[in-house]
Records
---
Amino acid sequence: MKKPFFYLAIALILLAAILMFNTIRVKHSIEAVEKVEVVSISEKAIDHLEEAITIKTISYNEEELFDSTQFELFNNFLINTYPLLNSQAEHKIFNSYSHLYKLEGTDNSKMPILLMAHHDVVPIASPALWSVHPFDEGVKQDTIYGRGCIDDKGAAISILESIEQLLKEGFETDRTIYLSLGHDEEVGGQKGAHEISTFLKSQNVELAFVLDEGGAITQGLIPGLDQPTAVIGIAEKGMVSLELDVMMAGGHSSKPEKETAIAALASAISTLSDHPFPKHMTPVMEEFLDAVGPHMGISNRVAIANRWLFNSIILNQYEQSSQGNASVRTTTAPTLFQAGIKDNVIPTMASATVNFRILPGETIETTVDYVKDIIDDSRISINIKGSGFDPSPISSVSNAEYALLSKTIRSMYPDIITCPNLVIGATDARYFSAICPNIYRFTPWKLSPNNINCFHGVDERIGINEFEDAIRFYRQLIINFNNLE
Ligand SMILES: [Zn+2]
């Protein structure tokens, strides 16, 4: 063998050895857990969820459509349906329709926990596409249908049922438990969760753990992973909308100038779309890959265990899908475009709105700077529209709280793995960052390619078994946190 080839062969053998060594070294660190006994759930729980769904607590962007009578009905439903909670917990109402319950613990050396959900729902965009009535169908065979099943009345009712059942069993809590139910999550949560978090902060409350929506039990949604996987949100993206305006000479369409306001704005939007924000391997993505990698096939395992070499290949693969892309970069979405009033008049003004979802590590400020830099056109004014928010802090996966959440999930759902993830939408949980470092986002709904589109979409539904398991899950979680020192 010639000398250069000899060295190349040695280098390749060394590289293969390093890759294999790293791959073998990375084992999943999840210890086996004992399954907990399956407790029976009151048959009335299903009636309660059905009843909650019939109450049309819809959040509209247009404030004048807000139907206060429906939210009052929901207030009454809470009082009438959960007598033990209402008699044993402190109850505070915020802006008439958001609720905070406090079940005082006997041991104030244990920091309180907060379980949260929201009871407002999004409107029905295409009623004709539903195979059932979105508010009145209830149970069909083994499934509960209706707007809010998954997002988020299902979780609200599951948490309420779990607490009511525990109180019926004579459960007395050492650790203070808060339950927060927001009535405006779908329109930003300012009147509900924001007010509740501000109140708790004013009372100097510090929380050991917060659980909100934002993750689920997925199957067939993570490429390369076949097992059911409980995806737990440990951070959420930030958000900002920018308005782009152009003012240029208009006039009669029979003698247009070389460039018009519409053309200049369209060109700016097109430049933005052609220059996506840089993709990054965030700390959240690293944690996600560390958790799922060991459960994948050999080629994925080698790549994930050797990210020093395969980082860009992994990122390239993730950016192929819209969900994956949103996990590795700040996204750019033009959502509004306005110009013109008549077909023979060149408008003097054109305006567009672009919505950005900001990756952890970046901010509103860096997003605005990037956009100005890329568009680089002094004719286009760029301004923040409404109020955005920076990405949330990232909650740890190496504390007792995350371990207990993961363990509780694994003790209730057979053959499941858990992993941390980035929530690409926004949840009410972000308001609690100031009073809790350990915020997690997970509801035990089973999402697969078959039903993922019913979220905010058509035929929203959950299985009866799934709902009963959710009540068991929250019940067990409360017991486990009570036992945690
Ligand atoms: Zn929701």
---
Amino acid sequence: MAASLSIRALTKVWPNGTRALEPLSLEVAGDEFVAILGGSGAGKSTLLRCIARLIEPSSGTVQLAGADITAAKGRALTDLRARVGFVFQQFNLVPKYTALENVLLARVPRRTYWQGILGRFSDEDRAVAARALEQVGLHDKLDAPARELSGGQQQRVAVARAFAQEPRILLADEPTASLDPRLADVVLDLLRAYGRDHSVPVLVNVHTVEHARRFATRVVGLRAGAVVFDGAASSLDEAALETIYGASVVTNVVQPRAK
Ligand SMILES: Nc1ncnc2c1ncn2[C@@H]1O[C@H](COP(=O)(O)OP(=O)(O)OP(=O)(O)O)[C@@H](O)[C@H]1O
Ligand SMILES: [Mg+2]
């Protein structure tokens, strides 16, 4: 299958001179669930944010289904961004908005001029948003303000918001770091199912090796802004973890699962 996401020679140098991404290239097909692993500061968040153009890369290109995200401007950029689903660790919901209103935010870029002026959404937008909330098991919470939902429910609203974008790619930056283990599994399962059912690439910064092993089809290991491991989740052995995290961290912190 042709790659859906194509990253070529992507770099990010922060204004203070920190090199967060070395020239990084990656091809991800529409049927892959990629877990990104790496120590703190390895460049995981920077990579996902550059793909979504939440931050500007310093050089290189990111193409999604053939469209160049890095070169897009104005309306073209808005349209491309509207199809990049992004799930954040801290949910990023509007606390006083209901679950449905939060999910409807995904449809804002699709509104006509007059719908925007009047602050209205089409029946189709409302149906898509309600369906997305059903998909994540929150059909009974449509009218609940986000601030009254539990952490797991809030993250599912955020996932529903990403689904309502009808995304061409799903990116998630440590989406489970604030959740208990059972809810973490639910969220990763939802992302995996969406990717599989819609043939879109899913890239997730996971914060445990176990999640990478259980959910991902492929693991990309980052270290100092460079890809140091790229292989099947099943090939993530101790040597690979040492390459990604360094020997001392693996022994002391990561504790790979016993075979
Ligand atoms: N706004 C910023 N300004 C300057 N440097 C930054 C900025 N954001 C991140 N960095 C630096 O870029 C590098 C990569 O950071 P990034 O946040 O991508 O790491 P990460 O792999 O996501 O780490 P963590 O696991 O702690 O979330 C680090 O050296 C970090 O200090
Ligand atoms: Mg990060």
